[in-house]
Specification:
single chain, mainly alpha, elongated, DUF1685, about 150 residues
Length: about 150
Amino acid sequence: MSRHNAPQPPRDLTKQHSWPHDVNRNEAWLRKKKKRSVDLIPRSKSVTNDDLEELKGCIELGFGFEPDSPDLNQRLTDTIPALDLYCAVHRQYCNHLSRTSSFASETDSISSSTTTVLDKGDDRKTVKQKLKQWARVVAFSVRQARKPS
């Protein structure tokens, strides 16, 4: 008998090595998965400049937000984080206008805001940034309130 007809012993199983593209894809997936778990952590209520630009863009595109409406959807304020700050500032501005135009009494002029701009633990840089953002929202709210309906 020749050696060619003899049965070959079974080969050991070997692990199939991934292509480099698969390795990159797996690494990208792991990074995305890790980022997603970080995104699930509730973010703070602080507003960024990008949030303000997003709100400004929505209003300039014609989306109307009624700051005094109790029907303001929570999902909408979660989607547009600057909307809460805008509504609070707009309410205060409109309340101020109504008080000054109707000669309100001294006791009525004391207002209590449920929205605070600064936190006690904020450092100087954060305070400065938050005050700038607040000023931008105030200016934007005043411009919106003065527009003819």
